[in-house]
Amino acid sequence: MARKLERSVQELYRDDPERADAVAFGRRDALKGAALAAMGGAVGAAIPFGGSMPGGTLPAIFARPAAAQDTPVLRMEGKGPLILQGERPLNAETPETLLDEPVTSARNMFIRNNGGVPEVPADPRAWKITFDGEVNTPLELTVGELESRFEVVTRQLQLECGGNGRSFYAPQTRGNQWGNGAISNGEWTGVRLRDVLRAAGLKSSAVATGHYGADPHLSGEPGRPAIARGMVIDKAMAEDTLIAFRLNGQPIPHLHGAPARLVTPGWPGSLSQKWLTRVWVRDKPHDGPGMGGTSYRVPVRPIVPGSSNNGADFVDMTSMPVRSILSSHAHGSRLPAGTRSLDLRGAAWAGDQTVRAVHASVDFGATWTEMQVAAPANAHAWQRWTGRVALPSDGYFEVWYRATDSEGRMQPHLPANWNPQGYGGNPISRAAILVG
Q: Closest Cα partner for 355 from 254, 426, 431, 304?
């Protein structure tokens, strides 16, 4: 007789969390007695706040691998040890602890590609960008001309992949299974896109842009764009939407879009076209690859998780949802016996909004401690947060952390508005900490 294959504990909690509790730990309500002892044995330490763990909750230590455990790592000159999400195209995520810098270094910046990486130009300042379409005077300008002709500005700006947080959805969606680390807050220098569009003279028919870059399609087909997304004209004309040519005071590394790229902060990073060659002003929403259907779009009304959908009644993602990271302690950290407090720090951001508050909990959400949140360096920069939480004893703890934006929207307990490509998943995050 063939042996029946059992689901993994992760699959069981994903599919039927209440039954998972009963099967794995013999509980159907508050964790106590033998069930508490069983779970403590599983995590390798006593669980001081075990009685507060919500039913159907898989301990974080099992829910995602700890640092350096079963995690493929990118090894590349000039880059930190990023989490490798894919090699073709190359995509890599930054561990939250490497985002402990107020301004993200190029070394620790996540990588998101849709196609190949183009050849390095012989003369970066001679790189040409075309501005055409619904304009009175089409322009073709070099990077050198952009820098000499228009005001040059420097801003700290958040750049976040539209699929950041995708791995938190159940059932799993297609695409790179990002955690929280497809985010950066670099100091970008360039010219405002709106200044160039004003010089070209927008026609009254201009409603959107379409962006093109030099990155080759993975098929190798000449002239086929790897991605060509676009945005409404209001975002193109916004104060912080830049054509950037420097990162943190240095020329942009080629891997991150040199000689020039768009930086469209607060919105999906796919709008921040690398290796920019053309901005096409259009009289209708752009329809290039990466637009329409379910691409960078979310449901207007919730759909059944796991169901198929052609995205006909979806809307384009605009401002990214509120999210926070914990950069002071790695998930799975073990601290010395006798540690009785944690000094926490991290970052939070909220697309076009700001962050009103960050809270942390070490008792599975039974109580929350408010953290101190710093003001952003400028609009569309992330905000650093700090605070301290007390620990009553040695044992297994989870740091839960959540942010609330300026409109009062708080990170949910579970990712909401499931969609086939996993956009917008921003639940409360959990980091396992063992003391002793």
A: 426
The gap from C-alpha 405 to its chain's centroid, in whole angstroms, comes to 16
Check if the beta carbon of residue 83 is closer than 8 Å to that of residue 70: no
Instruction: Give long-range contacts, CB 8 A cutoff, 24+ apart: 316-319.
Output: 316/285, 316/291, 317/162, 317/267, 317/268, 317/423, 317/424, 318/235, 318/267, 318/351, 318/352, 319/266, 319/267, 319/350, 319/351, 319/352, 319/353
CB 369 within 8 A of CB 387: yes
pLDDT digits (tens, 9 = 90+) for 232-247: 999 999 999 999 999 9
**How does the average pLDDT of the chain come out, rounded?**
93
**pLDDT tens-digit readout, 319-353:** 999 999 999 999 999 999 999 999 999 999 999 99
Place of tokens 């990118």: 74
- Residues in contact with 357: Cβ distance below 8 Å, sequence separation at least 6, in sequence order: 370, 371, 373, 403, 404
pTM of the model: 0.94
* Radius of gyration from C-alpha coordinates of the chain: 23
Tokens 């639940």 label which residue? 427
Q: 1 pLDDT exceeds 50?
A: no
Give me the mean pLDDT over the 372-376 stretch. 98
Q: Which residue has the tokens 């950041």?
A: 164
Residues 127 and 105: their CA atoms lie apart, in Å, by 24
- Contact between 358 and 348 under an 8 Å Cβ cutoff? The reply is yes
